[in-house]
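Lab notebook, bench 4. Still working through the backlog of constructs that have no structural model yet. Next entry is a single chain of 189 residues. Request: give me the structure tokens for it.
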Amino acid sequence: MRPALIALALLAAGCDVLDPMWVQEKAKPYRPSPWFEDGLEMRQPVPGAVAREEPRPAALLTGLGADGKPLARSPLPLSRQSLELGRARFEVHCAACHGLLGDGDSAVARNMSLKPPPSLHLKVQNPDGYFYQVIAEGYGYMPSYASALTVEERWAVVGYLRALQLSQRARLDLVPPAERARLLQGGTP
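Model written out:
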């Protein structure tokens, strides 16, 4: 009796009729719906979603060119909005170790017993793709930030890092006269 009961249970477990997913009401694209404010079943894609049919260029995702070398410049256009995004993400994810100025001077860095994080104001300029890869894959004791930052956010951080590098090496004579006077008086721009 027992083997027959076990066989019946196994047979019933594989039966599609018992699966509630097969008999649930389905959402059809143009049907009216009481569940959403716009009254439609069809939903707009989530912002930033990428369709499988529209793959992104490999260089954008990897930071590498067709020759396998890091890209010299970011494939995304630089804008004020992307720099602000890069600054916000840099301050959250990078500044704790690399410092707000990217110079490697931070409370965390001073208390590291092993190798402290380097200054990002390097004497030898690495290409943008190199920094993108380090953010995406990690380097040394630095973990990967691929799960914390989207592709666009990683490139925005690289753009902000370039702005930081320029700001730390900028000559005073390149600053507009009104701002130069404020800087010389000890004010902030």
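Notes after review: Residues 58-184 form a domain with the Cytochrome Bc1 Complex; Chain D, domain 2 fold (CATH 1.10.760.10). The two ends are 87 Å apart (CA to CA). Flag for follow-up if needed.
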